[in-house]
Amino acid sequence: AICGHGCKYGECMGPNKCKCFPGFTGKTCNQDLNECGLKPRPCEHRCMNTHGSYKCYCLNGYMLMPDGTCASSRTCAMVNCQYGCEEVKGQVRCLCPSGGLQLGPDGRTCIDIDECSSGKAVCSYNRRCINTFGSYYCKCQPGYELKYVSGHYDCVDVNECVTNTHRCNLHAECLNTEGSFKCKCKQGYRGSGFSCA
């Protein structure tokens, strides 16, 4: 089976037919499925969508049980956690619904970890890190676009000279470079390439 556009988070099952891995949707399985919007809802109280998955958390005064349900807890109610809590050996600990969040100094609210500035994020050389609340994603650098090439998605150089997105002077020629372009005044003209006289 050949899928011309590829299956980003899935398998090619037939001519241009993708079978998506759990947590993904779309014709090429490139979209994250928002499990929190499904009916019936996967979480008893609150739900946080994550890339390819989701996390359940409980309202204040409840704690998350191993099966994903929320059980009432008097001790949790006294701590007043932002995203529910757990009790381990009589100790109450507030929880954060994502690995990209950490407990704040008050021990009750969750604050975002900026994976981009902390160096926890791993993006390839032609991608830049974009921080989100509780996570991050890798976006193509300016001058590159996401394309499906030889079996996988990659950031490919945009040829500004072909797409006509350059700002070269009418009397200059456009020269494509990796991630950018250059303008050179034609013979008989002088200037920066953006202005030629």
UniProtKB/TrEMBL annotation:
InterPro entries: EGF, EGF-like_Ca-bd_dom, EGF-type_Asp/Asn_hydroxyl_site, EGF_Ca-bd_CS, Growth_fac_rcpt_cys_sf, Nephronectin_domain, NOTCH1_EGF-like. Its main location: secreted. Gene3D superfamilies: Laminin (2.10.25.10). Keywords: Calcium, Cell adhesion, Developmental protein, Differentiation, Disulfide bond, EGF-like domain, Extracellular matrix, Repeat, Secreted, Signal. It is found in: Secreted, Extracellular space, Extracellular matrix. One of its GO terms (biological process) is cell differentiation. Residues 32-71, 112-150, 157-195 form the EGF-like domain. The keyword Disulfide bond applies. PROSITE patterns: ASX_HYDROXYL (PS00010), EGF_2 (PS01186), EGF_3 (PS50026), EGF_CA (PS01187). The keyword Repeat applies. It holds the Pfam family EGF_CA. GO terms for molecular function: calcium ion binding. Belongs to the nephronectin family. This is EGFL6 protein. It comes from Indicator maculatus (spotted honeyguide). The lineage of its organism: Eukaryota, Metazoa, Chordata, Craniata, Vertebrata.
